[in-house]
Amino acid sequence: MAHRPNGTQGARGDGEIGREFTPPHGVPSPGGRGRCLCKLSAGVTLPLSESQLVIRDAAPGIAVAALRGHVDAASVRTQRDQLHALPERGIYRIVLDLAGVTFLDSAGMAMLVGLLKRARAGGGDVRMVEPADDPVRHILQLTRLDLVFKMQESVEAALRDLA
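^ thats the sequence. predicted structure below, dont judge the formating
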């Protein structure tokens, strides 16, 4: 069954298109129509393809970038600019907090790898906080990005490792 942002399902071979359903990762919007709403572990609800990026300075030369929601082609454009600006500002040690990420596609993964390359080119590194969402964690394992990035269980552990 193909999940679509408008809350309908694709053809499953039975010829039914447009039947309402509850996506496996969330609940449909009120009335079953409209954009899917994904429930995050922190109790925040974001519509499909919406995400948040919050960057804070943790220590001199170290930043924490917390991503929430869907990290996909729709959100990567602005997030990439913000994240890639960190090495340009001389911040080469970065903690990527993926604990609140509910979806990660290839565009999102490319953005994360690009940040890692920029940080290492400046003599730094990136630590990744493990996603709480099992499908996102599974994608990182399938693509072996969990071996490329040094994974940590918490932001605090990642900061200790970078210090």
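The first strand starts at residue 37 and ends at 39.
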